Amino acid sequence: MAHKKINVALLQHACRQSVHENKSTIEKAIEKAASNNAQLIVLQELHNSLYPCQTEDLQQFELAEPIPGPSTTWLADLATKHHLVIISSLFEARAPGLYHNTAVVFDRDGSMAGKYRKMHIPDDPGYYEKFYFTPGDLGFHPIQTSLGCIGVLVCWDQWYPEAARLMALAGADILVYPTAIGWGSNDSADEQQRQLNAWITIQRAHAIANGIPVLAANRVGYEADPSGQTTGIEFWGNSFITGPQGDILAQADHRSAKILYAELDLKRNTQVRQIWPFFRDRRIDGYADLIKRYRD
Fold first, then answer.
1. List 15, 53, 149, 155, catalytic entry
2. Which of the 8 DSSP states describes residue 95?
3. Which terminus of the chain has fewer Cβ atoms in its 10 Å neighbourhood, N or C?
4. Identified catalytic residue from 15, 53, 115, 118
5. Fold that domain 5-282 belongs to in CATH
6. Does the annotation mark 149 as catalytic?
7. What is the overall mean pLDDT for the chain?
């Protein structure tokens, strides 16, 4: 692990119907973040479009594109221009009838440092991702960049401590979660708060359990259900950055477009793991049943 300080930035914003407008929003935010000395930028999940999975609609596959493709060229150019590491999230068209929800990481010279295909795919009202995305087949392997080793996971992955642990065990210096999550039409105010608190708490727990920072970038804004069967999704924002003890370094609110900044000192990872030696005390001889679906 490189012992260095890194200036990171998360982009939180609403998305529009127009891919061109969304890309323009992202470009302006990246330029602003770069002018404020950001070195690593995290974009939210499926940032080029409205969230496509509220319904099962074949027309949404028109949003998909190959990797490499037009969006990777665009992002590579931005990474080169601003000398940034950029973590993006794209609707990947891998082959006819085969699609993934894929995070792509670009290094500061514009090279594609690596990609991660979302492993855990939800299938819930308003989040019909199994209709669109094949589960990832690249495993839980962090991506090496000039700024450090980045463990990239995507949205629904954030609820699974196994995914975070495997990234940490493979040498990740930072965990990153591009996200698109919000409240449903029937959620009461109390239920909304419970869901939001759970989302924040579990990701802070990943930071604590693994002794590494966590960066979670979520979108904001209301997006209507194209089918009209529900009242749509209100994305809850609250993007945040933690240190390796789960300490909140920066957090956005639930409705504003925001560029969130923090300085990460990766030396703290080692210091925290020395005082909380969870890796030392893991009883790997007793964990075999974790590979079972359920212990009957």
1. 155
2. E
3. C
4. 118
5. Nitrilase/N-carbamoyl-D-aminoacid amidohydrolase (3.60.110)
6. no
7. 96
Please give the DSSP secondary-structure letter assigned to residue 246.
S
Collect all residues with Cβ–Cβ distance below 8 Å to 47 and sequence separation of at least 6.
11, 15, 22, 26, 88, 89, 178, 219
Cβ(218)–Cβ(179) below 8 Å: yes
The domain ranges of the chain are 5-282
Neighbours of 296 (CB within 10 A): 4
Q: Give how far Cα 247 sits from Cα of 85, 147, 228, Å.
A: 23, 21, 40
Bridge partners (DSSP) listed for residue 42: 10, 87
Please name the residue ranges forming H helices in the chain: 19-35, 70-82, 161-169, 189-210, 267-275, 278-281
Query: Tens digits of per-residue pLDDT, 29-80?
Result: 999 999 999 999 999 999 999 999 999 999 999 999 999 999 999 999 999 9
How many C-beta atoms surround the C-beta of residue 229 within 10 A? 12
45 labelled catalytic: yes
> How many CA atoms does the CB half-sphere of 96 hold within 13 Å?
0
CB contact at 8 A, 177 and 199: no
The span from the CA of 225 to the CA of 70, in Å, is 28
Residue type, 18: S
- Angle, vertex CA 72, rays to CA 67 and CA 74, nearest 5: 155
Considering the chain, what percentage of its residues have pLDDT values greater than 90? 94
To the query of whether residue 162 is one of the catalytic residues in this protein, the response is no
Looking at the whole model, is its pTM more than 0.85?
A: yes
Read off the pLDDT of residues 143-163 as tens digits, 9 standing for 90 and up. 999 999 999 999 999 999 999
